[in-house]
Design a protein that fits this description.
The complex is a heterodimer of chains A (267) and B (284). Chain A is built from 13 helices and no strands. Chain A is globular, with a radius of gyration of 22 Å. Chain A has 267 residues and is an all-alpha fold. With 284 residues, chain B is mainly alpha-helical. In chain B, a hairpin with a 5-residue loop joins strand 1 and strand 2. In chain B, helix 5 crosses helix 7. The longest helix of chain B has 33 residues. Chain B is globular. Classes of the chains: A mainly alpha (267), B mainly alpha (284). Chains A and B meet through helix 1, helix 3, helix 4, helix 5 and helix 6 of A and helix 1, helix 3, helix 4, helix 5 and helix 7 of B.
Chain lengths: 267, 284
């Protein structure tokens, strides 16, 4: 009994450590004055309003949302056929293809960022919006690839065999069985890619940091010139978006399984 | 299900598009970067094609050695602290009921997805003189006057640990949640205390998982590029910062590329080592 209390106390300490900077930022974001002060002096939501009213912040918000939604779709469009092919057919180079899809995410991001920078400079697309979108799609293709592969693994092979023995061809097996069953995994893969793309800095910065300003780039640029509470409100907004998205995945999907837990105990 | 070998163009068709995309936008950029790392830098301009080892020769300078040594040191320390704290944390989380597990996982994912910019900004605020934690200590009477603890080495290490924690939890979560619950239960039945069970049964059973996690978190924190700039002083810049700085502000793409290739080889070797550890574990 006592050990359980100790265990829970340890969990609480780690959770508190992870919460500490966020609490301060949330406090600072509702500060009435422009100066950095904690605990906040007065209570005001004007900095959240400024995020939507100030042209440059709104523009960065727009860029971020545009890049995150489109690059997620592009990543999904690559991940689905790749995962399906690896799952459906017996090919020797499948492992190599899968590793290729995982690689961008395993290496320090600055490496991928520099590779993409040299690429876009070479073909003359440096600093253009499509460069940011495609770069994010390549960098985050790992996430839908992993979740869709998990989904395909969970399809009962007897269902496929039954359909085939009743005369269904690959196309109708795909549209009537495979696609409906992996759809939740596609959605969660997209959601992961979306949230991480919103927060990504180094690739967006290296590829088009001076022309396509996303919110993380905007925060870092303003940080150099000093403090404005709008940064804090952006940070709080991002935390809420992340909690909402992952909360929804957990609500409608099996989060422990998505994160690799074996046969989750149902309770 | 029998998995056929794909035949003809028709069945290969699905894989052509993703393979082409990854080839053009991932392999080709790496090839270009590799080529650029041997190119000749033109002062004040960009670079011109050539083949020289000058960019790699610069690795043998005291400055580069110091940056590399410092990067390895801080990333190693952050990885060590992350694993020491997160291994028991994750173990305890996997023993919780499903509902609490899910709540904590959502929380961990939310922190993991936070931009390094936001983490840096939040910690610099938390450690600042005007809005930081030292104000709380003054209020409690533990300190005389608020102090600025950022930028500095401690601030950088705290930030890197903050970056590493959620990542470590997600790496350790699958193996720990698959750990046979009968193993610790048997130890408990034989009369071992929970703490003793943890250290004499759980930790030894997970030895290669722990080593693998250490390496993965090390590679992850080695990739931090913003925290050293926001929370550290210029002498605390790591290899990743140096690469960005050379590429963007010094316009020395060849040298940046050479350093990135070096960092990639080190990371690949380490990740490969981790995968070998993992497959050995699976064989047993």
């Amino acid at each position: 009994m006592m050990s359980r209390c100790l265990g829970n106390a340890f969990i609480a300490v780690v959770v508190a450590f992870l919460a500490a900077p966020l609490v301060v930022v949330a406090g600072v974001s509702v500060n009435e004055k422009r100066q950095l002060a904690f605990p906040p002096e007065g209570l005001s939501l004007r900095w959240y309003g400024e995020l939507l009213a100030a042209g440059d912040w709104l523009n960065a918000l727009y860029n971020s949302l545009l890049v995150a939604t489109t690059s997620g779709v592009l990543a999904l469009s690559m991940a689905l056929p790749l995962a399906y092919f690896i799952w459906r057919y017996r090919v020797r180079y499948a492992r190599a293809l899968f590793t290729l899809g995982i690689a961008p995410f395993m290496l320090p991001p600055v490496i991928t960022a520099l590779g993409l920078l040299s690429f876009w400079v070479t073909i003359g697309m440096y600093g253009k919006l499509p460069a940011t979108i495609v770069s994010h799609a390549i960098f985050f293709v790992t996430l839908p690839l992993v979740t869709i592969s998990l989904g395909l693994e969970s399809i009962d092979s007897e269902v496929i065999e039954a359909a085939q023995s009743m005369g269904a061809d690959s196309r109708s097996v795909f549209t009537t069985i495979v696609l409906p069953m992996v759809r939740p995994y596609m959605i969660s893969g997209y959601a992961f890619a979306f949230v991480l793309s919103l927060n990504e800095y180094i690739i967006a910065y290296m590829v088009a940091g001076f022309t396509v300003e996303t919110l993380p780039i905007k925060i870092f640029n303003s940080l150099r010139y000093g403090y404005t509470p709008v940064m804090a409100s952006v940070a709080v907004l991002f935390v809420f978006i992340a909690i909402a998205v992952f909360g929804l995945i957990a609500r409608f999907g099996n989060l422990p399984k998505l994160l690799g837990a074996w046969a989750p105990r149902d309770a | 299900m029998t998995r056929p070998v794909p035949r003809g163009l028709g069945q290969h068709l699905v894989v052509i598009y993703p393979a082409l995309m990854l080839g053009v936008f991932f392999i080709v950029p790496f090839a270009i970067m590799l080529a650029v790392s041997f190119f000749h830098r033109v002062q004040g301009g960009f670079y011109e094609p050539g083949f020289e080892l000058d960019n790699y020769a610069r690795f043998f300078s005291a400055f580069f050695a110091r940056v590399l040594g410092f990067s390895v040191l801080v990333a190693g320390l952050a990885a060590l602290v992350s694993v020491i704290v997160c291994f028991p944390f994750t173990y305890l989380v996997t023993r919780l009921g499903r509902r609490w597990q899910v709540v904590l996982l959502v929380y961990i994912l939310a922190v993991l997805s936070l931009s390094e910019v936001i983490i840096g900004f939040s910690w610099s605020t938390l450690l600042s003189r005007t809005a930081g934690i030292s104000n709380l200590l003054v209020w409690l009477g533990l300190m005389d006057a608020p102090a600025a603890w950022s930028p500095g080495l401690t601030a950088l290490l705290l930030g890197l640990c903050y970056l590493g924690f959620p990542y470590t939890v997600l790496i350790l979560y699958p193996p720990l949640s698959r750990l046979d619950p009968q193993l610790p239960e048997a130890a408990r039945m034989l009369g071992a205390s929970p703490l003793r069970t943890f250290f004499t049964v759980v930790v030894p059973a997970m030895r290669s998982t722990i080593l693998g996690a250490l390496i993965m978190v090390f590679v992850f924190t080695l990739g931090a590029y913003l925290l050293p700039q926001v929370l550290g002083r210029p002498q605390h810049w790591t290899l990743s910062v140096l690469i960005t700085d050379q590429a963007i502000f010094q316009s020395n793409l060849p040298f940046a590329a050479a350093m990135a290739i070096f960092l990639m080889l080190v990371s690949l070797a380490l990740v490969g080592l981790t995968m070998m550890l993992g497959s050995r574990e699976a064989l047993r």
